[in-house]
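Below is how a single chain appears once it has passed through the pipeline. First comes the sequence as given, then the structure the pipeline wrote out for it. We keep one example in the README because the format questions we get most often are answered faster by looking than by reading.
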Amino acid sequence: MLTIMIKKRPSPTIFDKLSTQEIEVDANLKYFPHRATFDFECYFEKPTHNSKEGKFKIEAHHVPLSVSIASNVDGYENVCHFITDGNSQ
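Resulting structure:
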């Protein structure tokens, strides 16, 4: 049996595209050294009233349950979790 491997070329980055226009960006300016990530969790709540709005019908509302946040910024490396106590406002 013959197996053919096809390697897909990665999409050009914005810096590759700029380079084709003869715009070069210094390596130290390409990527910001800090980052933050977050994750929201929610549940769906059915509306208690007629939810028809124009052409759209709302099937459910997103109700927040929790959020988690993490970063590599100095002084903010600890992961934080915030969980609702029932009142998501």
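The CA atoms of residues 38 and 69 lie 4 Å apart.

See the next section for the split statistics.
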